[in-house]
Amino acid sequence: MIVVDTEILIDYMLGKQQTALKLEIYIGKEQLAITDLSLAEIAYIVQNPISIQNVVEAFEILNFDSDAALQLSTILTYNPNIPFRYLYNGSICVSKNYMLLTKNKEIYSRIKNLRLL
């Protein structure tokens, strides 16, 4: 499973060519997901019910659960300075051993065991 970060999905929705090419490598070949936080961010930014419905239909939506909460606590013990949204998304990915497709590798790379694309 590949989790698509918010910025990648927004760039894709805006038709940014470089991001579209990167995401299209995985479309139809891998299972793609986004976190519930990314869905909320997209709904806030895009504010178009049809576009949001298209996202819901195209991606599995991963919820923050107790495994992710435990992982977030673990991450905070060795790196308390990661911004919350990165902790949130990263802890979901690590707890499920999923890869994350992101443009923000500098920040996400501070999370141990998080596999980045």
Q: Can you summarize this structure?
A:
The protein is α/β, with parallel strands linked by helices and 117 residues long. It has one domain: 3-Layer(aba) Sandwich (Rossmann fold).
Textual characterization of the structure:
This protein has one domain (2-116): Rossmann fold. It contains seven helices and five strands. It has helices spanning 6-13, 17-24, 36-46, 49-58, 66-78, 84-96, 105-108, and strands at residues 2-4, 32-35, 60-62, 99-101, 115-116. It has a five-stranded parallel sheet, sandwiched between helices. Strand 4 (99-101), helix 7 (105-108) and strand 5 (115-116) form a beta-alpha-beta unit. The longest helix has 13 residues, at 66-78. It starts with a strand and ends with a strand.
How would you summarize the topology of this molecule?
Elements (H helix, E strand, L loop, with lengths): L1 E3 L1 H8 L3 H8 L7 E4 H11 L2 H10 L1 E3 L3 H13 L5 H13 L2 E3 L3 H4 L6 E2 L1
Helix pairs in contact: 1-2, 3-4, 5-6
